[in-house]
Amino acid sequence: MTGPTTPTWISAAPPRVYPLRLYGDPVLRRKAKPLNLTDPLNVPGVGPQSVRQVADAMLETMFEARGVGLAAPQVGLPVRMFVAVEYEDDEEEDEGGDAPLRSRVLRDFVMINPVVSVLNKKKDKSYQEGCLSIPGIYEEGVPRARAVSVSYTDLDGNQKVLEAEDYLARVFQHELDHLDGVLFLDRLPPEVTEDYRKELLALQQKSRTLISDLAQADRLRRERAGA
């Protein structure tokens, strides 16, 4: 009788990218906790890594998935950190494209314990919005403040404040929502989610499989450590 196979993304070396948590995963609905820069993070399926290692891998994961932002809960870590990027063109996500994204980066961001203040209360619904944890689903009409200010800690422990407007402000608000267990579909009428019921059920099934794979990876890691 054969046992379960080891998922192909599991290796002894630190990963370049992390598997993305999908719709239906409980970690996406948990309110994230404040992050201490000096504490190691126990990445599910990977093991302990420094905050900087996690941030680097999250950026690579975001580029690999052709996104513009990624929050720690999306890689299974319920801590208040996200990464984001501003590209020189094509403001919206380019998921599924072929051109290397790094060549188009104007600046990237690693924001730890971010706090958002609204600078312009007027809501904008004009952009199409999607989520790397809900792949293939895009909708317009998500109301977001047009301009925000974000106070946060960077990887060197410096306190910073950044103002953003329009699409970048939307990206920051989307990622902050993730830290509070909120998904962009929650900000749309309930019938929108119902319209995607079949697709979301499929994502929930994939999510359960991934959670099982990660648990298996952690068991293998503990067995190796104890050998």
Task: Characterise this structure.
- With 227 residues, this protein is α+β, with helices and mostly antiparallel strands.
- It has one domain: Alpha-Beta Complex (Peptide Deformylase), CATH 3.90.45.10.
- Helices cover 28% and strands 25% of the residues.
- The protein is built from four helices and nine strands.
- It has helices spanning 51-64, 166-179, 190-195, 197-226; strands spanning 41-43, 47-49, 69-71, 81-87, 105-124, 128-129, 139-140, 144-153, 159-165.
- Strands 3-4-5-8-9 form a five-stranded antiparallel sheet.
- Strand 1 (41-43) and strand 2 form a beta hairpin.
- The longest helix is centred in the last third of the chain and has 30 residues, at 197-226.
- It is globular and about 55 Å long.
- The model is unreliable at 1-12 and 91-96 (pLDDT under 50).
- It catalyses: N-terminal N-formyl-L-methionyl-[peptide] + H2O = N-terminal L-methionyl-[peptide] + formate.
- Fe cation binds at residues 131, 174, 178.
- Its EC number is 3.5.1.88.
- It is an enzyme of class 3 (hydrolase).
- Removes the formyl group from the N-terminal Met of newly synthesized proteins. Requires at least a dipeptide for an efficient rate of reaction. N-terminal L-methionine is a prerequisite for activity but the enzyme has broad specificity at other positions.
